Amino acid sequence: MSKTSIALNRFGYGLHHGTRAPSEPQADLLRQLAAFNPRPGALADRPDSSGEAGELIQVIRQQQRKSKQDAARAAEMSSAQEVKKMTREERIDQLPPELRGKVREAYGRLRADIEARVNVAVASPTPFAERLVHFWSNHFSVTAQKQGTPFEVGNHEFYAIRPNLNGRFSDMLKAAVLHPAMLLYLDQWQSSGPNSPFNKRRKGRGRRGLNENLAREIMELHTLGVNGGYSQADVTEFARALTGWTVKGLARIKRFAEPQSSGAVFIAAAHEPGSRQVMGRNYTDAGARQAVAILDDLAARPATARFLATKLARHFTSDTPPASLVTRLESDFLRTGGDLASLHRTLVRSPEPWANAPAKFRQPFEWLVSVMRFTGVETLGGRRTIGVLRQLGQEPWKAPSPAGFDDVNASWAGPDALLRRVELAERIARNAPADAIMERAQAAFPDALSEPTRTWLSRAESGHQALGLMLVSPEMMRR
Hints:
Elements: H1 3-11, H2 25-35, H3 41-44, H4 53-76, H5 80-84, H6 88-93, H7 97-123, H8 127-139, H9 153-161, H10 169-177, H11 180-185, H12 197-202, H13 213-222, H14 232-242, E1 245-246, E2 258-259, E3 265-266, E4 276-278, E5 281-283, H15 288-299, H16 302-316, H17 323-336, H18 340-349, H19 364-375, H20 382-392, H21 415-430, H22 437-444, H23 451-459, H24 463-471, H25 474-477
Antiparallel strand pairs: 1-3, 2-3, 4-5
């Protein structure tokens, strides 16, 4: 692979149809970092919905109560099974009008956010920066499958990840893990201190307990890593420090809510009182600032630098990343205090990602965006975009666990996955411009188009067949 092809396809999402490859690939990647726009056209009018999570939860709970009432009535009529078979749309149709609109708005927002996410990457003049957005978004993975999250998962990427792409990791960490989407996903929004004023007043009537999910995942998945030197006692203490952090819009807490920059709110009455000790450091009882101080310290730990450097190196090189690259990225992170712009520049300037042979299999989202850029297809439409990504096995914001989507070849290169790509490539090729495919392929993979691929393209019976073959070629499948 030539350096130009590596810059286009390993660092980016491929050459956009109708544009030219850069003459100085490394310099172009650095230019892209500097030119990155956190709020491009497709996202410019997308409102910040972080304040709507609590309202949606209340709507969903009303929907659930109504569903239970309907099920109870149906059971009396011996038709409970029919209620269970109802589709989501049918259940929504039975809601009162004021609730029906809110639920539909949430799912409509999710569809629009997924379409915008794809379209921004397809049209972007800074595809390397978009790749980094999606890397960090997957690192701080959230799901659209929990109560209240359909409004929030797109907001999480657009308002917590994108604005902090070239900032400090500590700022991205705080924005991401204290965002309503994460508080909902990992059940933090209902966690309260056992000895908090809130629980003392309730005296056993509906007392809420301590939830350790968010604290554990921050340490294990977002900062230190599995072997990062923390104990169960550290997790519990951190969870106590996080109590009081919840989402806006819950009617019962509105008058107590202290708005936070992450879009969440802090309820002092639900916070566990007292100082905390986490990993040998003491943190005074400073309300919302107690958890923030712990996050800042976790972001600066050497274990965090090592963990993040390994993940970033793996994503841009191979499943077993070169130790030399990991060490270089780790050193940069520690030297700069977690300056992500510097970390990304060090990645570009390191020799290891420029190795000649492709080592990573493109994940479904990466492949689809690269296909659309190559063909000149600007958008598929909201519902079709979701359907295609679901077919490929990587629907945005639906990773199977808080660890996000896997970043190793074995998770994406199975026979069934390849067959789905072939079927989709055929459908896209039938409806896309199919002129001069050989020339377009040479431009998209300069000095990197293999002889077998050239042979297949030259023997194709039509331009559309040549395009279909190109979309499933080794060059398009790997980076």
